[in-house]
Amino acid sequence: MKLPLKANMKMLLGVVTLAAVANAVYFLNAYHATYDLKCESFLTHQVRQDDFSYSAMIGLDLRNNAKGTFSIEGGMRQGEKTWVLNRDVVFDYTGLHDNAFRMENIHIIKYGRDNSPDDLFDKNVLSLKDEASRVMSLGKVKNGYIVGTLRAPALTCVPH
């Protein structure tokens, strides 16, 4: 038994409408899962039990295309040894819930004057090995943002 042409058109219109609504929901959700933020922070951190410290300018750039960069420039010290720190951590990110995002496809660009040990960077500055450290929180506070891991705030970042 064949359906009348009018019934076929209504069914086709319903399928097209459902596809359009699903598409709109997907792209609306994807849009809200990205950020448009560029900010900087100066951070000094000490780990007394390891006699380790670092001071650095840290820039955070999160773009609407779900790509981001941490730019880190400064110095590290452990005991009497000192190193120059000058690298970018480039990543894709996925927006999670409540102003959190997960870093993925991480690539480190280490510039020529950066002579700091990668294991010290990973252990004390930004761990890329630990899966939990790849999830960052981003909280708006007055004219800046608090950026940190799920464990603790890391830095206050002021937009420019």
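(ticket continues) Second input and output from the same batch:
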Amino acid sequence: MTRTLTTDAFRDQHGDPATWTSATLDSYQVIGDIAPPPPPPFTHREMQAEADAWQASAAGQQRLADELAAEGHTIAAGIHRRGAQDARQHAQAARLGWPYYEAFLNGW
């Protein structure tokens, strides 16, 4: 069985990068040059579009929450306010790019 040297495998073997020596960091960088990690599944532009969609959803839900609150429907307004807050959090994570968005979605 041939083992493939990847940056993930290196981290698994050497543990927390905060404890690495400068020689270990150099080795990690060399591995990254030889076998770089695969690109993220979504480009920066695609993640910005995702963030814009979430922001538009948040605005729509907030607008609906305000209308419902004005009509006295406090429970329904609260539900839509929470939905708007959730959409804003998704938008904020998406603006930072795929790794952050993935971590947000997985609750890391």
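Agent notes: The radius of gyration is 21 Å. The CA atoms of residues 50 and 94 lie 6 Å apart. Closing as not reproducible unless the customer responds.
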